[in-house]
Write a structure and sequence with these properties.
homodimer, 223 residues, alpha/beta, TIM Barrel, eight-stranded parallel barrel, 9 helices, EC 2.5.1.3 (chains A, B), thiamine biosynthesis (chains A, B)
Chain lengths: 223, 223
Amino acid sequence: MKVDLRLYAILDPERTHGRDLAELARAAAAGGATLLQYRDKYADTRDLVARARAIKAALAGTGVPLLVNDRVDVALAAGADGVHVGQNDMHADDARRLLGPQAIIGITLKKPEHVAELAALPVDYGCIGGVFATASKDNPDPPVGLSGLAHLASSARTTRPGLPVGAIAGIDASNAAAVIGAGADGIAVISAIFMAQDVKAATRNLRGIVDASLARRASGTER
Amino acid sequence: MKVDLRLYAILDPERTHGRDLAELARAAAAGGATLLQYRDKYADTRDLVARARAIKAALAGTGVPLLVNDRVDVALAAGADGVHVGQNDMHADDARRLLGPQAIIGITLKKPEHVAELAALPVDYGCIGGVFATASKDNPDPPVGLSGLAHLASSARTTRPGLPVGAIAGIDASNAAAVIGAGADGIAVISAIFMAQDVKAATRNLRGIVDASLARRASGTER
């Protein structure tokens, strides 16, 4: 499944100022998010399913796919379009078996070993991180920085040519162009979208930066 | 799916003295457990799947089905026989849809409202609790006691005739006979099995008490 990773909006109830998840999802889609992930490490399963369903309904007609972080059961129950799995989440082989060939499955890439495994994994994108320090997640690993990102993205392109590769952690309007310049096909964003007062405007601004940076890269002005 | 609920052994890594889960499962099966549940509120999904697989493999040939607490994704990935869902876990309708008609699905019954909903739920057993106080789980609700158990079990029999009804929380060799006497078709046990030094012997002892109590009830000596 070909995934548009340009602006990957990650909706985590802990980083929303307590606002309605469905409304936030709709605002991000309206602002130009190309993919949305629902990530929730605390809710009970019944609430996870209800929230994922509400977000999926909010995205109806927008063309923006909904992925669920980690939880294949929640994705299946809510009719989401797939899952994002970290290195300690369900193995991509198992997720693919349970979700079927049409589902979108993405994976977190933190280290060269993870990139090396990409060749054999049934995933539709990789997301490199953490690129910068972030307040959104407890992360025991040090950020890879722009040079680490460039190295991992380049390796991923060698291992799995054509696989979209995004970047995550601490990305906002101030550094998004540099992230794309370092080789990412898109940015995954939590706080810079969903902690913004005007989610739609913040999304639109980021999307503009990404599109311009990708165009510059394609025209050879950078890299 | 007809479920034998006489001795339902619940394996929670927090209540095992750190021993190997597969070996504990095998010991419980050898001692006469009729159903086994893997419950784990802390492990990452990847570990949950690996542990559930190991337990399922350990039960091969014993005839003892393996259920996973809450997590339908883990049950599906590990090839478990079903799930046990609490009132905040995935709705039984969703679990049935994802797991199929052959899976075993059980539900926790804490209150008369839960029993009243039984009529419409695609579940194979109910488990009433907490009957007594327990160290195995944070439980905000007060124990229902033997009289509450008797009342809920009787209501469940009216709502869903023939549905096996178990009991959970604080049940051990000292009170198992009273629990069966109050109307439970079986007992769900955590610590009295898996915190025991000799798991097989503890299981066998409990199974003997349950069988004798069920026989007494069937012959009309009690109840």
